Amino acid sequence: MTAFRFIILIIIPILTGCIHIKVHKQPNFDKAMAFGGPEECRVYQSEAPSPGGNKSRVPYVAVTATGDSFPDSEFIKRGTKRLREFNPDLIIVQSPQTQRTGTYHSFGLYSGLSTPIYTKTITLWAYRYIKARLGVSWDRESHMVTVIKNKALYKAGLLEGDTLISIDETPVPATPEAHMAWSREKFDWEPGQVVKLIWIRPGTGRMTAEVKLINNE
């Protein structure tokens, strides 16, 4: 019985100690791949301020690394290796998530021992830089404009605090899934291209203007 208990405690963790990699292609994946990318890219942690600088980027594929009994660095190493196959401009690593997924038991002659099993998941995203950008940031939930970097937008009348309604006749996405699908259009943007904006200002109402996209630099 003592030998059996040793096998349960020592061998089982070894058998369960592996990392599973799963690829998650997004709706814009084909356009991103046709866009091309560098031979090498940098890897950033999600907590890093402005990863990759201020250039506009679009996520197009992710991998999840799931397993146990390994340090975070090993998860990141394997996930990064898989993502590099898609030639991204940069990779951003999200914070690890850990959850209890089960329990294994060992039994001695007079007692038993239960040990929880925890599974760790780390998600890594591959991003592609686009050629042009609008030069404005907004809150994903409220669509309220938070930062304006394109001076032409100020001249057109847009202000921080306005609520964006649509960009070039396309409604501003309300969900992460819709935003990912809409991002396909960004790969067609060109510097100097004119797009139509519609927004709402409290106390004023609906406003509209046409502005030019700027270089993504």
How would you explain this protein's 3D organization?
Helices cover 22% and strands 41% of the residues. The longest helix has 15 residues, at 2-16. Residues 1-16 have low confidence and may be disordered. Strand 10 (163-167) and strand 11 form a beta hairpin. It folds into two domains: 2-129, no CATH class; 132-215, PDZ domain (Pdz3 Domain, Roll), CATH 2.30.42. With 217 residues, the chain is of the alpha+beta class. The strands form four sheets. Strands 1, 2, 3, 4, 5 and 6 form a six-stranded mixed beta sheet that branches. It is elongated, with a radius of gyration of 24 Å.
Distance between the termini: 68 Å
- Unreliable spans: 1-16
Provide the residue-averaged pLDDT.
84
Q: Based on helices, strands and strand pairing, what is the structural class? A: alpha+beta
Instruction: Report Rg.
Output: 24 Å
Could you provide a short overview of the structure?
The protein has 217 residues and is α+β, with helices and mostly antiparallel strands. Helices cover 22% and strands 41% of the residues. The protein has 2 domains: 2-129, no CATH class; 132-215, PDZ domain (Pdz3 Domain), CATH 2.30.42.10.
Question: What's the helix and strand layout?
Answer:
Elements: H1 2-16, E1 19-25, H2 29-35, E2 42-45, E3 57-67, H3 72-83, E4 90-93, E5 97-107, E6 112-129, E7 132-133, E8 136-138, E9 145-148, H4 151-156, E10 163-167, E11 170-171, H5 176-182, E12 194-201, E13 205-212, E14 214-215
Parallel strand pairs: 2-4
Antiparallel strand pairs: 1-3, 3-6, 4-6, 5-6, 7-14, 8-9, 10-11, 10-12, 12-13
